[in-house]
Amino acid sequence: MRPSTSHWGAFSADVTGGRLRVVPHPADPAPSPLLGNLAAALDHPSRVARPAVRRGWLEDGPGPDERRGRDEFVEVPWDEVLDRVAAELGRVREEHGNQAIFGGSYGWASAGRFHHAQSQLHRFLNTIGGYTGSRNSYSNGTSSVLLPHVVGDAHAVLRQASTWPTIAEHTELIVAFGGVPEKNVFVTPGGVTEHGTPGHLARLRARVALVSPLRDDLPSTVDARWYPIRPATDTALMMGLAHTLVAEGLHDRDFLARYCAGYAEFERYLLGTGKDAHWASGITGIPAADIVALAREMAAHRTLVTVTWSLQRTEHGEQPVWAGITLAAMLGQIGLPGGGFGHGYGSMGDVGDTGPEVRTPYLPQGVNPVREFIPVARIADLLLHPGASYDYDGEVRRYPDIRLVHWAGGNPFHHHQDLNRLRRAFTRPDTVVVHEPFWTATARHADVVLPVTTTLEREDLGSGRRDTHLIAMHRITEPRGESRDDHTIFAALAERLGVEKAFTEGRSPREWLEHLYEEWRVSSGAPPFAEFWAAGELRLPPGPTHHTLLADFRADPDVHPLKTPSGRIEITSAVVAGFGYDDCPGHPVWLPPKETGPLRLIANQPRTRLHSQLDGGAVSRAGKVAGREAIRLNPADAAARGIGPGDVVRVFNARGACLAGAVLDDAVRPGVAQLPTGAWFDPVDDHPASPLCAHGNPNVLTADVPSSRLSQGCAGQHAAVDVERFDGPLPEVTALRPPPL
Ligand SMILES: Nc1nc2c(c(=O)[nH]1)N[C@H]1C(S)=C(S)[C@@H](COP(=O)(O)OP(=O)(O)OC[C@H]3O[C@@H](n4cnc5c(=O)[nH]c(N)nc54)[C@H](O)[C@@H]3O)O[C@H]1N2
Ligand SMILES: Nc1nc2c(c(=O)[nH]1)N[C@H]1C(S)=C(S)[C@@H](COP(=O)(O)OP(=O)(O)OC[C@H]3O[C@@H](n4cnc5c(=O)[nH]c(N)nc54)[C@H](O)[C@@H]3O)O[C@H]1N2
Ligand SMILES: [Mo]
Q: How far is the CA of 141 from the centre of ligand 3 (A)?
């Protein structure tokens, strides 16, 4: 068997009798269940076998087209399709300039650092004069804009918080907003060899206050009390806790004076507007006595306040993060081992992990001469409203006019909100080129679909953040159909555009691996490439067991100031206040969500797959109900609607609707429904109930609104919806079959 890795873990594999066998890495104490999806990567009917071009584009040429996403595809030989794409790239550059090419191309693609699809695309576009890019992530794009204003550097919070061993030793109480959902911790971008977090969770001795609409956002083995909060009201709970601390004189005045800026202004707001436990109770649904008791307990113990990334992936998503830091500052424990604030425990496998901090080999992308970019979640606005202006982190920016969209390694029809609106946005460009191994909804909304290998069909180097190993990813099997790796596709386009040498530097993919490894090895003291490749892996030197940035700050904030204007934790930021945004003022405030509805939908990460990847895999399929994505409802909400377990339901609001299979579960708070992301978007256009997604993609329901004018972050975690039993003619799920060719 040969070594490889994935975003959810390292493994070895072979193909015998046409079937993929997968064995987890022997050093992995907790292999991910998602390994069970991998077999579907090989010969699933949804693989793209040959290059395909949309008929309307082929016959009528480039241009905005309402048929995009509804038209037929025609298979075209590689040489012809590459000639056409190269010619179109040339035309757009000449007639409109390079900023008319959108190469933001957000997405996780697959593990493997050389064939990293987005890096390959960016390197290619840079060699032909650049592209309009994207900034930040769907993951924590709200925090990554806010945190520099509050703590000077997003890394101070995201990478420098207490490690799990420190928490095990020192923390007495974890107040976990969003919980610490175990389902998420198997994943780290780039791969992970030793999954440490499940073990850390099993050994946790601290008591946990689980603040979440879902009881299973924490493993059942942990000593916990569930605070079943109404979604999107965490900031109100934090205010109620903060108010109690002040009212009872439990806040650490010395810490606030020495290490923080602008506390007084926040306190005036808190007290002046009466944000006490009673007030918070009315908004959150948590009894006032519980809020008061929790505040006292927090002040009496070594307490870690944690906030999952999901909380900032909402409207006003800055507020629970800023208010959480403020609450931790009032407890005076920031910089103490196991105390203070943490962000993303249970969101990603590397948060709190103690793995190496080595930067492993990566492909240089070159320099982008084009200065245009968008905050990543503004993709539909970009395509729909060229020239329109918008706010972003103190700037007023304008959307460029995009003529060509080139996407490699992501699935916007998975990750973006209000997919019916995104469909309209995708009719606007002249040309959409998509590189994909699979017929995803994004591929189906393209003009040109180029079939790509999966990691199992090529060689690469694999290692994630804080991974203990660098994996020599061997080829497990031959490429399926006529698929090629992204690098080879871009090399062929580069040749047609006269820049092949600049793009490939004369190296084959295998020569690139060797080159990147050898350059990296010089500073890392690792063995030569041939030795590494034959061994199949390299163990990386251990990382620090604890972080020092905040401890140093605590030791002396004048010698080790934060990188904020004041050098302190900015509970009030004059800079943010100066931007004058009503949806993100200068200190944490309570802002209710704009949209309300009978049920609040939580559209969180799926337990059964990574995003939309391998939705046809065995683990993902086993989670479906009546062939659709499972929606969890509280039994009382289901009974009120005449919904029984296993029923097909219609989930709907003014933006759209989808079908899903009902699961009744009292782990879901009343008034809440949970439908994870990732069922492949399956629009049914000719149904009495259209627009309808037959398969259960929650992004037909989410609003395409930013978290705020400050960050323009993704707000897709929630949607206001209602649910009814679906008794109409049941449309088939067709998304996992290839389109007719
Ligand atoms: N409603 C709602 N929406 C959300 C979220 C939410 O909480 N709620 N979460 C958001 C978050 S945090 C994220 S990160 C995004 C994730 O969104 P994406 O990262 O876009 O989702 P993936 O399904 O991982 O898409 C990766 C695609 O790359 C393809 N691929 C794999 N390997 C290769 C390769 O080698 N080359 C090429 N060219 N393609 C390849 C896969 O087949 C897949 O289609 O979703 C976001 N969307
Ligand atoms: N299995 C699996 N693991 C993954 C991924 C995947 O697709 N599949 N994706 C990975 C990626 S790219 C990312 S960015 C991370 C994302 O990490 P997160 O964004 O933290 O993950 P989610 O599962 O979306 O949300 C975590 C929990 O927050 C709770 N929650 C939602 N809204 C609220 C609220 O208003 N208040 C409170 N208190 N709780 C709320 C939900 O119950 C949910 O289960 O996960 C990573 N891990
Ligand atoms: Mo993410």
A: 9
Domain count, the chain: 3
Our answer on whether the CB atom of 238 is closer than 6 Å to any ligand 2 atom is no
Residue 546 has pLDDT above 90, yes or no: no
Say which CATH number the domain at 406 has: 3.40.50.740
Closest CA to 455 of 136, 84, 6, 43: 6
The 10 Å CB-count burial string (b at 16+, else e) for 696-718 is bbbbbbbbbbbbbbbbbbbbbbb
Which one is catalytic: 8, 57, 78, 106?
A: 106
Q: Is residue 551 part of a domain?
A: no
Dmax (CA) of the chain: 75
Ligand nearest to the CA of 344: 2
Atom of ligand 1 nearest to the CA of 604: 7
Can you give the residue range of the structural domain that contains 199?
146-347+567-579
Per-residue pLDDT tens over the stretch 668-704: 999 999 999 999 999 998 888 889 999 999 999 999 9
**Model pTM above 0.85:** yes
Q: Is 654 exposed, middle or buried (0-12, 13-18, 19+ CB in 10 A)?
A: exposed
Can 259 be counted among the known catalytic residues? no
Ligand 1 atom showing the smallest separation from residue 116 Cα: 35
Question: Quick check: CB of 62 below 6 Å from ligand 1?
Answer: no
Tokens 């006292």 locate to: 296
Q: Is the CB of 415 under 6 A from ligand 1?
A: yes
SS3 92: helix
Domain co-membership, 128 together with 150 = no
Look up 106 and say whether it is catalytic: yes
Please tell me which residue in 8, 57, 78, 108 is annotated as part of the active site. Answer: 108
CA distance 150 to 384: 33
Task: Check if the beta carbon of residue 339 is closer than 8 Å to that of residue 331.
Answer: yes
Confirm whether 283 is domain-assigned: yes
What confidence score (pLDDT) does residue 523 get? 85
Q: Kindly state the tokens that stand for 614.
A: 């391998």
| Domain end among 547, 579, 611 | 579
> What is the token pair recorded at 105?
């191309």
Query: Do 176 and 249 fall within a single domain?
Result: yes
Q: Are residues 661 and 681 in the same domain?
A: yes
The separation between the first and the last C-alpha atoms of the chain, rounded to the nearest angstrom, is: 36
Which ligand is located closest to the Cα atom of residue 453? 1
